[in-house]
Write a structure and sequence with these properties.
By secondary structure, the chain is mostly helical. It has two domains: about 85-300, no CATH class; about 335-555, MetI-like fold (Orthogonal Bundle), CATH 1.10.3720.10. It is about 65% helix and about 0% strand. The protein is built from 25 helices and two strands. The chain has helices spanning about 35-75, 80-85, 85-90, 105-120, 125-130, 135-160, 170-175, 180-185, 200-205, 210-225, 235-250, 260-270, 280-285, 295-300, 310-315, 335-365, 370-380, 385-395, 400-410, 425-450, 455-460, 465-495, 500-505, 510-520, 525-550, and strands at about 315-320, 325. Helix 3 (about 85-90) runs antiparallel to helix 4 (about 105-120). Mean pLDDT is about 85; it is low at about 1-15.
């Protein structure tokens, strides 16, 4: 009987059968074959990824990122909560459907928010945003920015009459600021980094509203104005906060800096003759629109960080505290624009098919030399500026243009009955058909040039008529070219805005013109993003429907 160890080679090494001691296949380097193959495949994939990485990065930056940004802008609404954080929080407890204005606490929060926003020049941006939802709110916010000082001056003037130090910078800094911070301000040259604002702990506990208002003021003066708080008297908002604190707290036990001045102010506030004004009355004096219930309902409706309001507007709806409702009939414009855009894009695509098919058929059946010469005429429009081609159509189609003048000269129309061919849908369709026609001809030509002529000859030799030969043999083979050209022309036409803008007038513009308007003129980027998102979804839906009905695999550009 053979010993078990006799199957091993001398020295105990495994037999040279391509396997290790555990029975796994091994490579020439001694590693398991499975791991070596996985390593080789991984290296191959990394090399392939490195080759396409520049293209992927380009697509990500120029295509994916802009679309993602557009989708985000269509729902982003942080301007309200960022500009009016206190009022946004206070409005959460207010019932917008109760039929009553918000309580005094909301007007108080709005006062501080808008005062700070006005100093940062941010209140007008908020007004412009809300003006998209309720007309007149832009001017309401602008007036607030100019008039909020009037509320604070009611208290500032009385404090100043009591003691002139209340209108000076240094006494305020000594009352509110930490001694170390004041010392740093005294040696600050205005060019180096500003010292961090530091208030005394006892004053923050004693006068919380005043401390917060003064800190905001001091930080603004140091960082934005690049001035020294020791040389700038506080905003009137700080005086308002001081009045409110003195109403609520007892300062009789205060013994810190400027204690006598603060106690005298406290006694003044307690005097029945001290003049006051409610925040609600102050806003009313600035602009009576601040007491309109609908304006506050709009502010609350758009106070969340994200909103569907832009999409609601793009669908001719409006977001209200009661929910989504249909806009008035005279305000429904976007649904009509979407319908017009789709209808005219389909008409332009059909026009390009009717005009381009005979040309592509002719080019594919002519001798190569002649076809190449005629192809130059097809490509010639690409060498001319789009703006020049569109302007040329405007010259030709206008009432006193070339076409109307020719028709009048031929006696086909009367001089006082000239055809209206510009600033309407007809002008847009004609101009865009001319511009997009090459994009239809080229795919159809590339497909038709690959159809063997022998198929047609074979059909005729079997007794088929010219029409039967074309319809039963030639046309089905050219359908992929028609599909490719149709997709190309339709997608291009649905996003055009230069040509409709020049020759379309009011009845021939596309939804893309409205998107361009909101981006460049009204600066309503959220609505423009929502309209663009809807247009993107419509195109993708049509593309999906085309794929389901025709099959995208049947679309080809030749070969």
């Amino acid at each position: 009987m053979t010993d078990a160890t006799s199957s091993q080679t001398p020295g105990g090494a495994a037999p040279n059968d391509g396997r290790d001691a555990s029975g796994q296949m091994i490579a020439a380097d001694g590693r398991p074959l499975k791991k070596s193959l996985a390593r080789a495949l991984r290296a191959q994939k990394l090399r392939a990824l490195a080759l396409i990485a520049p293209l992927l990065l380009f697509v990500l930056i120029t295509f994916i990122a802009p679309i993602a940004d557009m989708l985000f802008r269509s729902v982003e609404n942080q301007i309200v909560s960022d500009t009016m954080p206190r009022a946004t929080e206070a409005l959460q407890d207010w019932d917008a459907n109760a039929g009553e204005l918000p309580p005094e606490e909301v007007f108080e929060a709005a006062y501080y928010d808008l005062f700070i926003a006005a100093e940062n020049k941010a209140h007008t941006r908020l007004g412009s945003r809300l003006n998209y939802e309720e007309s007149g709110m832009s001017s309401m916010f602008r007036r607030a920015g100019r008039g909020l000082d009037d509320i604070g001056e009611v208290y500032q003037d009385q404090f100043k009459d009591l003691n002139g130090d209340w209108d000076e910078a240094r006494p305020w800094a000594e009352l509110m600021g930490d001694a170390t911070w004041i010392s740093q301000l005294e040696s600050w040259d205005g060019e180096s980094t500003a010292p961090r604002v530091a208030l005394r702990d006892d004053i923050e506990a004693l006068l919380p509203r005043t401390a917060e208002a003064y800190q905001i003021f001091a930080e603004f003066v140091q960082t934005v104005d690049e001035d020294n708080p020791l040389e700038e008297e506080p905003w009137t908002m700080v005086h308002t906060a001081l009045y409110q604190d003195l109403l609520d707290v007892d300062v009789s036990g205060y013994s810190g800096p400027r204690a006598d001045m603060l106690k005298a102010a406290d006694a003044l506030v307690a005097d029945p003759t001290f003049e006051t004004i409610t925040f609600k009355d102050g806003f009313e004096e600035i602009d009576e629109d601040w007491l309109l219930l609908e304006n506050w309902r709009v502010i609350k409706a758009y106070s969340p960080d994200y909103t569907i309001g832009y999409f609601a507007t793009a669908a001719d709806l409006e977001k209200t505290p009661d929910g989504i409702s249909l806009r008035d009939e005279d305000e429904r414009i976007y649904a009509k624009l979407f319908q017009r855009t789709l209808f005219m894009s389909l008409v332009i695509t059909a026009s390009c098919i009717l005009l381009g098919y005979p040309i592509a058929y002719l080019l594919s059946n002519l001798p190569m030399r002649t076809a190449n010469l005629l192809m130059i005429l097809v490509l010639l429009p690409f060498w001319t500026s789009l703006l020049v081609r569109t302007s040329a159509w405007k010259v030709m189609l206008q009432n006193q243009g070339v076409i109307n003048d020719t028709l009048v000269w031929l006696g086909m129309v009367a001089d006082d009955g000239r055809l209206q061919m510009i600033n309407n849908q007809f002008g847009t369709i004609v101009a865009m058909t001319h511009i997009l026609l090459p994009f239809m001809i080229l795919p159809m030509y590339s497909v038709m040039s690959t159809i063997p002529p022998s198929y047609v000859r074979a059909a005729k030799s079997l007794g088929a008529t010219n029409w039967t030969t074309f319809w039963r043999v030639y046309f089905p083979q050219s359908v992929p070219g028609i599909g490719a050209g149709s997709i190309l022309v339709f997608i291009l036409s649905i996003g055009y805005y230069i040509t409709p803008e020049i020759v379309g007038g009011t009845s021939g513009i596309f939804i893309s013109n409205r998107i361009a308007y909101h981006i460049s003129s009204s600066l309503n980027w959220g609505l423009a993003a929502a309209l663009g998102s809807i247009l993107l979804v419509v195109v993708l839906a049509l593309y999906w429907a085309y794929d389901r009905i025709v099959g995208i695999d049947n679309v080809k550009l030749g070969g």
